[in-house]
Specification:
Elements: H1 2-27, E1 52-54, E2 57-59, H2 64-67, E3 71-78, H3 81-84, E4 104-106, E5 114-120, E6 126-133, E7 141-145, H4 147-153, E8 160-168
Parallel strand pairs: 3-7, 4-6
Antiparallel strand pairs: 1-2, 3-8, 4-7, 5-6, 5-8
Length: 172
């Protein structure tokens, strides 16, 4: 029974990936990121604000204008440990290769990409991260950070901490 459920989940994931690949080809004129000479599916200057569904719940990201005023205190966690033992490249929701050694984050509602200043309120350490993924999908958490970001903020070993997250404008 357990094996059968896993097979169904994998089958559904394959279908979803297939549908996303069709949509991606349609929105880029048929050329894949590889064919366009890109190292990822991320297109510079493109901001993702489209609604999405995770575990049956629909999420509607805020507009770029709304995100410009975003400031929230809450719980941060870090993610990526689960990918360290797996083979292959893992992609973020923004179409980039996941890099646990980079300063990146995941947020449920901010447009992708968005730069945020994250301050650990327990030790006042501050870093700037680029939000390029969706999550965390754990109740009570406002942002997931990479292992590198968690180390710089000083909560890697603990797993979570209280933070202040503020959007910032990066000059290009």
């Amino acid at each position: 029974m357990y094996y059968s459920a896993i097979k169904r989940i994998i089958f559904l994931q394959v279908i979803v990936l297939f549908l996303f690949s069709i949509i991606a080809c349609r929105t880029t004129g048929g050329a894949s990121a590889f064919e366009r000479g890109e190292k990822s599916g991320y297109v510079k200057g493109h901001v993702k604000t489209a609604p999405y569904v995770v575990n049956g719940k629909r999420y509607v990201p805020m507009s770029v204008k709304e995100a410009g005023k975003y400031r929230q205190k809450g719980i941060a966690s870090w993610y990526g440990y689960e990918t360290l033992r797996q083979k292959g490249v893992h992609m973020t929701a923004n179409g980039e290769a996941f890099d646990p050694k980079g300063l990146y984050g995941a947020h449920k509602y901010l447009p992708l990409p968005t730069y945020v200043k994250v301050t650990n309120l327990k030790n006042n350490r501050t870093i700037i991260v680029r939000v390029n993924d969706r999550g965390p999908f754990v109740k009570g958490r406002i942002i997931d950070l990479t292992a590198a970001a968690a180390k710089k903020l000083g909560f890697y070993k603990k797993g979570t901490t209280t933070v202040l997250v503020e959007t910032i404008q990066i000059e290009s």
